[in-house]
Amino acid sequence: MKVAELIVAGEWLIPSRMLQYFQVEELPVLSKTKDTRVWTGTMSGEFTIHSVVECFREHYQKVTWARHVWHPTLHPTTASNVWKIVRGICSTNEKRKSKGYSLASKCYMCGVDSDNLEHILWFCNFSQIIWKWLGGIFLFCNPESYEDVMNFAKNKSGAVKDIWLLVASITMMEIWFLRIRICFEEEKVNLGNFKRRIIQYTKDCAVRIKSYMWECSYDYMVFKNFDLKHQPIKPQRIIEVSFFLPARDQILICCDGSSRGNPGAAGYGFVCRDEMGGCIYAEATGLGIATNYIAELMAITGAAEWDIQNNKLDICINSDFKAAVSAYMSGRLPWFMQVRWKRLKELLHNIKLVHSLREVNFSADSMAKKDAGLVRGGKIIFNSKPSFIPVLESPEQIYYRFC
Predict the structure, then answer these.
(1) Are 245 and 277 in contact (CB under 8 A)?
(2) Is residue 193 exposed (0-12), middle (13-18) or buried (19+ Cβ within 10 Å)?
């Protein structure tokens, strides 16, 4: 049996005996046009040399620290040394012992523990004094790994994030250099000189800081402690956005997709409302492993397919992902979705795609938090209004204000 024998009048006709192995919905949507060649190595279906290289080259696991180590704020000398430290390629006594050398291993700065990189940077008595001093400035506790360094300033202003990354990277580099000077030049530990070196090096590299600061006492305190010139303050403005109900006999669909990891466990959700704002249907569906972009595209397609199945042919789709709306409006979709969307457009009487901010797309945002945890094919269906979807009390436009 050939594939052509399973297609009758442009539709799939699968024998019942074969349906125990797969579902008809798993098959691709058939196009009634002439077959064309598609290169599956790219999203557009066009062949490129770059895509060929990507297909057969060895892909290494992405690391989380790369964007921090090679951040534009850091001087290349600092970045290269921090890269060596994070990779653990510094020559310590413990590393030489692992290669077969027989020697005593003792920390050159405190003389308490063995001479290994983790102890030198984070747990040595001298290192802990330095981190405690910096923690008093930034109001942080002592880091115990480079991951802590990356996460401590997560909720601070962009300027404070840059200063913390700069100071922490300089501190790591200077601690390692001090260990080398003690080992080979028999230099004495001087806490005051070490602090002054960090402050001076920070001032020298502060010209590379380009982020905005917040107008708050915390930011001003950090800049004052390092004697740095204040960064510009990004002015805040209040934007008024509006949520519009659909026209008469039209269905409003608010959809959203999400991916935990990008790519990672992904899914999409959508909420359907009538002209009075009442919730008539809500669904969350798992996609397996996918990117945010694919999840957002599938949210729009899945919502449109539900409308056709339920004879709702006049729809307005709201999405807070501008790239997905632009892709559907321009027709530049991934090759595996083009035929599917073309068939949907032929069946729908009227379809309107609208990009809205996340604050307006609140109901779909609630659904998106429930869909990414579902396995591929998993589905949650709400035939009545779920408790986590807000009620629209008035059919008129509703305003939200946010900074």
Answers:
(1) yes
(2) exposed
Q: What span, in angstroms and rounded, lies between the C-alpha atoms of 358 and 259? A: 16
pLDDT digits (tens, 9 = 90+) for 63-111: 889 999 999 999 999 999 999 999 998 888 888 888 888 888 888 888 8
Could you give the count of Cα atoms lying within 13 Å of 290 in the half-sphere of its Cβ?
23
- For residue 109, give the nearest of 183, 192, 185 by alpha carbon: 183
Q: Tens digits of per-residue pLDDT, 183-227?
A: 899 888 899 999 999 999 999 999 999 999 998 999 999 999 999
Strands 314-319, 350-355: pairing is parallel
Task: Give me the DSSP letters along 147-208.
Answer: HHHHHHTTTS-HHHHHHHHHHHHHHHHHHHHHHHHHHHH-PPP-HHHHHHHHHHHHHHHGGG
- The 10 Å Cβ neighbour count of residue 393 is 8
pLDDT digits (tens, 9 = 90+) for 350-388: 999 988 887 777 777 766 666 555 555 566 666 555 555
Q: What is the three-state SS of 74-137?
A: CCHHHHHHHHHHHHCCCCCHHHHHHCCCCCCCCCCCCCCCCCCHHHHHHHCHHHHHHHHHHHHH
pLDDT digits (tens, 9 = 90+) for 115-162: 899 999 999 999 999 999 999 999 999 999 999 999 999 999 999 999
Longest Cα separation, the chain: 87
- Which candidate, 284, 283, 290, 282, places its Cα nearest to that of 266? 290
Give the number of residues written for the chain.
403
Using the structure block, give the residue that is written with the tokens 């030198």: 120
The dihedrals phi and psi of 276, each to the nearest 5 degrees, come to -95, 0
- Give residue for tokens 């590299």: 205
